[in-house]
Amino acid sequence: MRVGLGFDRRDASTDALAGVIHRAVAEALRGASGLDTPLPGTSEADARDALETSARRGAGGAEGELRETVRLIERHNHQVVNLDITVLADVPYPEAALHEIRERVAELVHIAPANVVTKKSEINPTPWLEAGNGVAAIAITLLDQISDLDALHASIRSGG
After folding, report:
1. Nearest CA to 83 among 63, 59, 103?
2. Which of 8, 11, 57, 140 has the fewest beta carbons under 10 Å from its own?
3. Looking at the domain that runs over 2-157, which CATH code has it been given?
4. Separation between Cα atoms, residue 51 and residue 60, nearest integer Å
5. Domain ranges of the chain
6. 39 Cβ partners below 8 Å, 6+ apart?
7. Is 90:122 a contact under the CB 8 Å cutoff?
8. What is the largest CA-CA distance in the chain?
9. pLDDT below 50 — which residues of the chain?
10. Which pTM value belongs to this model?
């Protein structure tokens, strides 16, 4: 099992909220998988693939980056076990928006929504969050290496 931490920040808007969460999750997944910084024994092809994924981060927006990261980690037999996401903002976001993003993230990383925790913290402006229009997300993930993704996906989706 491996743990990863991701962080991203942007100007505040509803679209920025989804984007900042997607980017933080993708960064956490890459960190946990070790594919951004190849681990000892990682093949040259795997390292190239990780670099290509990093280069494509802008293509398809933040959701495309997350989708591509999931494809890469699953190809290397890693599976997301759970995600814990904290949104930091100096403006309030509706719970419904967080719930919708949580459902979409669960779908993108192929786990049950119950395995994705989202919470928000309204904070006073800080130097790294512009006053009145900043949003950031911190994501922590747990990955497991598995041999049969189909069996695991079926188990997770059935709640077992």
Report:
1. 103
2. 11
3. 3.30.1330.50
4. 17
5. 2-157
6. none
7. yes
8. 47
9. 39-40, 54-59
10. 0.75
